[in-house]
Write a structure and sequence with these properties.
174 residues, UDP N-Acetylglucosamine Acyltransferase, domain 1, five-stranded parallel beta sheet, 4 helices, serine O-acetyltransferase activity, EC 2.3.1.30, acyltransferase
Amino acid sequence: MFEDLRQDIDRNLADYGPLSPVKRFLLCLTLNSIHVVVLIRLQFWCARHRIPTFFVAKILFWFFKIEVSSKAVIGAGLRLPHPMGIIIAPFSQIGRNCDLYADVRLVLSHGRKQGPVLEDGVFMGDGAKAVGAVRIGQGATIGVSAVVTRDIPPNAVAAGIPARVLTSSRSTEP
């Protein structure tokens, strides 16, 4: 938990450049993105140790309107630049170093017990949604308010309702 949290904090502070320990501490006290990732990791820690997650989940909801199922899987380096209105359903999977902006929804569909899978390095813009058992490939970018209902290949840019692939880049190897 603590290694994942450290990576989450590092990614959320990366935009602020090199930081002295004092400035880092002060930013951790004031930034909502840090507060949210701490609460999410605490919720997962409580669930893993069979401690009720109700109180942490309610704090997330009351202050940030965020719902995160303790049955979701979230990789290290989660970045939440504008942490408001985010929903992460049970059985959703989020890879390492993903960015989720405000009002992102990762939800189940039609009673299936498989949520969306975001591979490493996925960027989801404000209001983007992934519905059902879809896979968003590594390094993909999902545009603002897009609704993903089909798989998105790695390194693709997708937008629209329903989301369609606008560009798909090939491997960056020389």
